[in-house]
Structure of TfuA-like protein:
Amino acid sequence: MRTVVFVGPSLPPEEAAARLPGAEFLPPIERCDIDALMAQEQPPRRIGIIDGKFLQSFSISPKEILRAMDRGVRVYGSSSMGALRASELDVYGMTGVGTVYSMYASGALEDDDEVAITFDSESLRPVCEPMVNIRVAIDAALRRRVVSKDNAELFLETAKALYFPQRTAAAALHQLKGIMPEPDRQRLAGYLRSPEAPDAKREDALALLDRMRQDAKQYQTVPVPEVAAR
């Protein structure tokens, strides 16, 4: 069962390959990528969408995904462009996975810039931070009492106001110098730099690959019905 996954800055492709052996990993998806796959002699039976392009090229359209699904392809989405499209198409059978998908599906998030980032075209490494990652990390900081509710709201407002290609936690914290009490600012900065701070996009990408791997096992264990011959 041929499996193709579009992944980039949310998770290094080599790490993705180790998580879902046997799958084909392609760069972030853009318009016409799925149509091209479906035109091949042996199109994939499963497609995972994690990352996608939208600024330097046309983004993958819902209709293109629906055309593949109409041909029996199971499509999964998480983390970034995949989460956006899954929140739009889950009612038609697209499988959404993870925190970011749930936030869009529930209406907690609406703006596309929440997942938008810029990245190096060769290494696929991000050069800024997605707003959704910052939100999830701040939620965790609140639960751990690293930051007060007032300071959390101030920080999120400051980060959201940044243009997404320049958006990083460090840039937001820098703007809050002299505004947020310095001990609070330093404590929050330390937490956001630590391994304890969650990376929502990365975690969701791993969850998508795990879901696809588990679904493949279930598919392989479904008994083939016997056909009576005449």
Q: What stands out?
A: Residues 145 and 157 are 19 Å apart (CA to CA). The longest strand covers residues 3-6. The chain has ten helices and five strands.
